[in-house]
Amino acid sequence: MEGCVFRVLLKLRSYKCICIILLCSGIVFYMSIRKGKQVKAEREWDTTSTPKQKTTTEAELPLKLLSTEKYKSLFQFDGIWLAPKNSCECTKTNRMTVYQLDDYIDKDQIASITERREKEFEEYQRRYPTMTKDAVIAVPNTPLSYPVYGAEVMPLHTIVIPGLGFHGNRTEKLQVILRASLGTLNTLADTSEEVVRGRGGKELTISTANVKLLNHILDHVTYTSTVFLVNAVDMVSFKTGPYLVKFPVTVRQRPLPKLFDPGPDNNLQNLVTVTTKTFLRYHKLHILIKSLRKFYPDLKLIVADDSEHPEKIEEANVEHYIMPFGKGWFAGRNLAISQVTTKYYLWVDDDFLFTENTKIEKLVKVLENTNLDMVGGSVSGNDFKFKIFYEEGEDGSCLHIRSGFYHSLEGFPNCVVTAGVTNFFLARTEESRRVAFDPKLQRVAHSEFFMDGLGNLLVGSCSDVSIEHQNRAPATDSLLVDVERSYNKFRTNTQEQMRFKLSLHYFKNRLKCYTRV
Question: How far apart are CA 87 and CA 292, in angstroms?
Fold first, then answer.
């Protein structure tokens, strides 16, 4: 009996040892897993929260810029390098015509002309300060919120400045200071003078330890314009403690809208007036009128005429305006457009011919459904569209004219966005009047209008609307032969006229050169 008990105890002892061994193994295994997870977590923290230690090679890596050759290979459009630079140049390449404009000014006058030009340019910059405004840099890690764009007030009006706020956790008393230069500051919040000082002045000071009250005051800060300015920017400063930011408040007088009534039926004759300029060629003008009446019998036609011996035009819906003899191409355009009373005008030359493909309605649809100011068509299959690139420089600017277009016009598969078009176009009347045609250009001129309109006119071209040229065969009638001969004397581009135009660009547009392909 005792032997049996002894054997049982031995077995229990052996089981106990096994259990102890298993328990210890489990503890070691658990600790190793826990340690592994901790190491993994520390590594993850190191990669996400702690900057990676740079290698010696990275730490010593020099800070470099791209080489000049590499830099100049970037940022090109149509072969023109459109990157930031202090000066520009017009370099001749294949098939390119380059005009260095000072070559077309008498050398004994270039110094005085340049001096007058630069004086006028300084005046231009003073009158239009937004042309030279500095960049506003946002300050990092600031508890202040403020408007970066969109705070606008009309002269002598008042607005509540949007977006002002403090987003810190300060518990001690805060002092916030706002300063303006072109207006005064106030707040609609009803508080004591100990909290808000300087109401109605150029400097507004807020003192409080209550962040909720501070934000209530800031949320109702007003800006009042005190100077009648048509277009200016006041950089308002916003400061508390070490934090200082600046934000723009634009003072702009909004113009009255000028709307054109299309009538209850939205008829084309209430939307479009056809305009042209004629000189001597009445036989061409009558053919134009006949073709217009075939397709658009009710449209008004305005004719500007600077012929030496004007002929009376007795046609329905035609307004004939007589000018001094030889007054010029652009002066005639100005006169014609000045008499338009419709939303749009269609410009045509006096030797054009309306056809079944001259769909004015299509051009109207483009302008009615886009933000274009002008859209051209094609003349006898040639749409003559071109791009303009402008580069500013300290000593004068550069202009580059290239055929083609910038990109397609969304929603109109046959139309593109460009900078200039042929003499067949539909345009918004008011926008064209703002740019105007320079009457100094009396004879050969076309692209000059689009140069003056750059930055003001958005231009498109549609290839599916066309007009034709009349028969260009030489006249056989002796009277018409004399008319054509006299006309060509004025129409032909002379070296003197070219010299005048290029010298005009030098002064008026402050160009030093321009190129065209």
Answer: 49
Q: Using CA atoms of 67, 69, 74, 80 in order, give the dihedral in degrees to the nearest 10.
A: 140
Token code pair at residue 230: 């048509």
The answer to whether residues 231 and 127 touch, using CB atoms and an 8 Å cutoff, is no
Q: Distance (Å, rounded) from C-alpha 217 to C-alpha 294?
A: 70
Name the strands in the sheet holding 158-160, side by side, starting at the edge strand that comes first in the sequence: 158-160, 221-225, 183-187
184-198, 438-452, 485-499 — most confident range: 184-198
Tally the C-alpha atoms within 13 A of residue 319's C-alpha that lie toward its C-beta: 15
Average pLDDT over residues 503-510: 96
Burial of 217 (0-12, 13-18, 19+ CB in 10 A): buried
CA distance 325 to 336: 16
CA distance 342 to 268: 10
3-state secondary structure of 431: helix
For the chain, which domains are there? Answer: 144-252 (2.60.40), 268-516 (3.90.550.10)
E strands present in 243-394? 243-252, 272-278, 301-305, 318-322, 344-347, 352-353, 374-379, 386-391
Q: Assign residue 80 a region: left if phi > 0, alpha if psi is -120 to 50, beta otherwise?
A: beta
CA atoms of 35 and 41, how far apart (whole Å): 10
- pLDDT band at 404; cut points 50, 70, 90: very high
Query: What pLDDT score was predicted for residue 492?
Result: 77
For the chain, what percentages of helix, strand and coil (3-state, to nearest 5) are there? 35, 25, 40
pTM: 0.82
CB-based contact 353:468 (threshold 8 Å): yes
